[in-house]
Design brief:
By secondary structure, the protein is an alpha+beta fold. Helix content is 29%, strand content 19%.
Length: 218
């Protein structure tokens, strides 16, 4: 009898709020890009160069469309709200297609499955949230860059780091597979940046956000 455990990709992202779905899209795109285990996902990860109208709309375009629709729907009317729902459904279509592709390839290899950025479905009904990371330091050793140091979180599959300036909205700056040093590039000199981070993974998908830190970019 074959007792090999068969893995199933979690579709819990369908219960996440739209902003979290954007983060999940960004994380999966990062993890699957250049991943030799998953060379030909049915939904491409990035737009083809040159453009190819015969290909299905890529994951990056779907992520940007959802992010734009979320922004447009703030304090907006029925049309904008409908646009957000449509963009969310389009994002789910892409996530689902690539999820089943990953599941087919990594059905018996959990580390391979997790390397895609997707999570494995758990048979444990208890919801376990990851611990919240702490920002242990922010360095500005190189112009237009900040090195953000985080406390590693057990069982996290990655980290999302956001920034904001002044009274602006928080925006995702990067996703990282490790916590000790996360480098933010392309920043504006003379600007004070607020930085926060959260761990990704666990049965709830993410931790709470860390307490913000701040630094001026020289």
């Amino acid at each position: 009898m074959n007792n090999t455990k068969l893995n199933t990709v979690s579709l819990a992202y369908k219960k996440a709020n739209p902003s979290m779905v954007v983060a999940i899209l960004g994380w999966i795109i990062k993890c699957m890009t250049g991943n030799a285990a998953f060379p030909k996902p049915p939904i491409p990860l990035a737009p083809p160069v040159p453009p190819d109208p015969t290909q299905r709309v890529d994951m990056t375009t779907r992520m940007i469309s959802l992010q734009t629709a979320i922004s447009d729907s703030v304090d907006a009317g029925t049309a904008e709200t409908a646009g957000k729902k449509a963009a969310l459904a389009f994002a789910f279509e892409g996530l689902d297609a690539n999820a089943f592709y990953v599941q087919t390839i990594a059905r018996t290899d959990l580390p391979m499955l997790l390397s895609s950025g997707y999570q494995a479905a758990s048979t444990n009904r208890a919801q376990t949230q990851l611990d919240t990371p702490s920002i242990t330091g922010i360095d500005n050793d190189i112009s237009t860059q900040l090195d953000v140091h985080l406390s590693p979180i057990s069982n996290a599959v990655g980290y999302e780091v956001q920034i904001c300036t002044g009274t602006g909205a928080w925006t995702t700056a990067t996703f990282s597979t490790q916590a000790r040093t996360v480098t933010l590039t392309g920043l504006t000199t003379g600007t004070v940046y607020q930085v926060r981070a959260r761990a990704l993974g666990g049965s709830t998908g993410q931790s709470d956000w860390s307490m913000p830190g701040s630094s001026i970019v020289d």
